[in-house]
Amino acid sequence: MYTPKYTIPDEINYNLEEIERIRYRIERQLIMPKHEEWLRREAFMRTAYSSTMVENATISQGEMEKAVKAYSPTEIPKDRLDVTNYVRALSFVDYLSDSTDTGIPILNEGTILQIHWQLMSGIHDTHFLPGKYRVEPNWIEDQGIRVYEPPSHIDVPILMREFSEWLMAKEQQSPVISAGIAHLHLVAIHPFVDGNGRTARLLATLLLQKAGYGFRKLLSLDAYYQRNRDEYINALRDSLGTTYNPEYDSTKWLDFFTGSIIWQSETLERRLTDWRIGVEQIHKDWKPTGLNDRQIDGIIYTGKKGYLTRKDYAEIANVSLITASRDIAAMVKAGLLKPEGKARNLKYTLIAKKANS
């Protein structure tokens, strides 16, 4: 069975303790459930785009922000099948992390193959072999330069079987350390023709969420990797070297991995605090205008997304389409929302952004 090699120096031990402290505080943040769902959708879309952008430099920051702001996979361009597939794979990971323990190990070789299939199916299937191991030599390139040579394709099946046995074993180590090691080792084996990095990041996400370190599914580590791509690649390289070595040491990577969780979770904690304070202030400012709470939430949603549809309002306010139409009409009459488009394309944009405007 695969046995990872690493040490836990003071720096990593401190990171693990700090992650526990931040996790405790975030789990106890008071956020309205519907507001939390908006933020969760945003984190979901940011993760799907950011992880894809680590390897795909053709995606612009502006394209990602547009899709993230819309909260919806429907905003993904039709030619971005890699992002669409990541959304599907991430949904699969979310499903697995939420599933009840049936006694059958979820973290196994079959799960990894299924994640890869979700990522790669429909994208040149005969070449990328979705859900199947590579059958020829492979390597990692960065800006056209070969930077890492993984093990022979002949060794991949046995290496993955040993890795799977390790995943299924009841280890006593920190779940954060397990997730970091899983991420690194899948990259080290590089079992697929393409999609290895994305599969590794999804596997780490699954391990974290399944162990209760999902930070309410509001944390996007992939966003950190995308913003700090060079640092991310270098951290992998520092542990793996340039050629696969079964004796590689994971310590340097784990230092980066735990540090990235701290950075993103601290950012998330500040954001949740600012969100809660901001929402409370908006409700306080707008209440005297005669708007009810669901209409004020509609104002908040419109300001965040950029526009509002009747279907959006019905969903966020948990009301019928008839009630949604009535509430929106009242806000249009009050000069708060402006209709744009017609029929199915009808949207409403925000006119007034302050209660006294």
Element layout with pairings:
Blueprint: H1 10-27, H2 33-55, H3 61-70, H4 81-98, H5 109-120, H6 125-128, E1 140-142, E2 145-148, H7 156-168, H8 175-189, H9 196-210, H10 221-227, H11 229-240, H12 251-286, H13 293-305, H14 310-317, H15 321-333, E3 337-340, E4 347-350
Helix pairs in contact: 1-12, 2-3, 2-4, 2-10, 4-5, 4-9, 5-9, 7-8, 8-9, 8-12, 10-11, 11-12, 12-13, 14-15
Give a quick set of tags describing it.
357 residues; mainly alpha; Fic-like fold; Arc Repressor Mutant, subunit A; 2 domains; two-stranded antiparallel sheet; two-stranded antiparallel ribbon; 15 helices; 61% helix
What does this structure look like?
This protein is mostly helical. It has two domains: 10-272, Fic-like fold (Orthogonal Bundle); 290-350, Arc Repressor Mutant, subunit A (Orthogonal Bundle), CATH 1.10.10.10. The protein is 61% helix and 4% strand. The chain has a two-stranded antiparallel ribbon with strand order 1-2. A two-stranded antiparallel ribbon has the order 3-4. The protein is elongated, with a radius of gyration of 23 Å.
CATH level 4 superfamily of the largest domain:
Fido-like domain
What general form does the structure show?
elongated
Radius of gyration: 23 Å
Number of helices: 15
- How many domains make up the 3D coordinates? 2
β content, as a range?
Answer: under 5%
Major sheet, described briefly?
A: 2 strands, antiparallel
- Based on secondary structure, the structural category is mainly alpha
Q: What is the straight-line distance between the termini?
A: 67 Å
CATH architecture assignment name of the largest domain: Orthogonal Bundle
- Give the % helix: 55-70%
Uncertain segments are none
Task: Give me the side-by-side strand order of the main sheet.
Answer: 1-2
CATH class membership of the largest domain? Mainly Alpha
User: What is the helix/strand order?
Assistant: HHHHHHEEHHHHHHHHHEE
